[in-house]
Amino acid sequence: MSDRFVFQATKEEVEHQFKVHSEREDYFESHFNITPGSLISAVYREEGQRKINNFIWGLIPPDAENERSGAENYEVTLGEIQEEEWKIECLEKRRCLIPASGFYKWKTTKKKNTPFYIRLLSNQLMALAGIYTVWKSSSGRDVYSCSMLTTEANALVQPVGERMPVIIDREYHSTWLGEDALDERTLDRLIQSYPMSQMAVNRVSEEVNDKENDDPQLIQPIPK
User: Fold this and answer.
1) Where do the domains of the chain lie?
2) In the sheet where 102-108 sits, what is the strand order?
3) Neighbours of 165 (CB within 10 A)
4) Nearest 5°: phi and psi at 76?
5) What is its EC number (predicted)?
6) Highest-confidence range of 1-10, 71-80, 95-104, by mean pLDDT?
7) Rounded to the nearest 10 degrees, how much is the dihedral formed by the CA atoms of 37, 178, 49, 51?
8) Considering only CA atoms, which of 41, 43, 44 is closest in space to residue 54?
9) For the whole model, what pTM was predicted?
10) What is the pLDDT of residues 116-128, one digit of tens each?
11) Mean pLDDT of 8-37
């Protein structure tokens, strides 16, 4: 699972890389231990316009009783999407990109779980593929929520986990954010695991295991 990630970038960096603009400064606050259920920034296309907004990380089902009902839907595989009609509709019509500096994976042994931080060698932001939905609260408020797509891990990530988030190259941002359904060939190409030659994996402090910790030191490499 990839149930934690990091966001550290300026407003200008996000706006430039994702070709989006917002007057809201709080969409660009740095966090180093983002967990499911958190509000996260996501880029999406709505009414023909590319936008950025705060989404709940955890896709809320259409028949949910409250906003917490999507907690377990923070990540999803293509196979899982294809099992439920409402998720298929999200994939066809409501795709989003989640800006991230990197994500954590844990190598599990009988003795302990060792955390690793995974990023791009370029240190640029990743664009993690997601699907989203808009749930109507009892008060009539539109609540945006999303789930992160995962794929088979590449050879670099595989030793610490069998799956990894889908990362969309910048040249395909517009394709992923399009409002039309993707054909099978295009979808298969986009959700392939990211090239290992462009990524780095570093062991990091076990302090990240505590969800309350949110500090730049969490992503600093430590000796293996």
Assistant:
1) 5-219
2) 31-34, 5-7, 102-108, 113-120, 199-203
3) 25
4) -155, 145
5) 3.4.-.-
6) 95-104
7) 20
8) 41
9) 0.95
10) 999 999 999 999 9
11) 95
pLDDT value, residue 96: 98
For residues 186-199, give the mean pLDDT. 96
43 token code pair: 């880029």
Beta strand 142-152 with 49-57 is parallel
In one-letter notation, the amino acid at residue 43 is V
Question: 139 versus 168: which is more confidently predicted?
Answer: 168
Per the CB < 8 A criterion, the answer to whether 63 and 89 are in contact is no
Residue type, 25: E
- Both structure tokens of 52: 């950025």
Neighbours of 183 (CB within 10 A): 8
Rounded mean pLDDT, 168-192 = 95
| Angle, CA of 1, 144 and 149, to the nearest 5° | 25
Distances (CA, A) of 78 to 9, 110, 165, 169, 189: 29, 30, 12, 18, 13
Q: Are 204 and 219 in contact (CB under 8 A)?
A: yes
Mean pLDDT of 27-44: 96
Residues across the chain: 224
Tokens read off for 204: 């990091």
Element (H, E) at 50: strand 49-57
Taken in order 74, 79, 83, 84, is the CA torsion positive or negative? positive
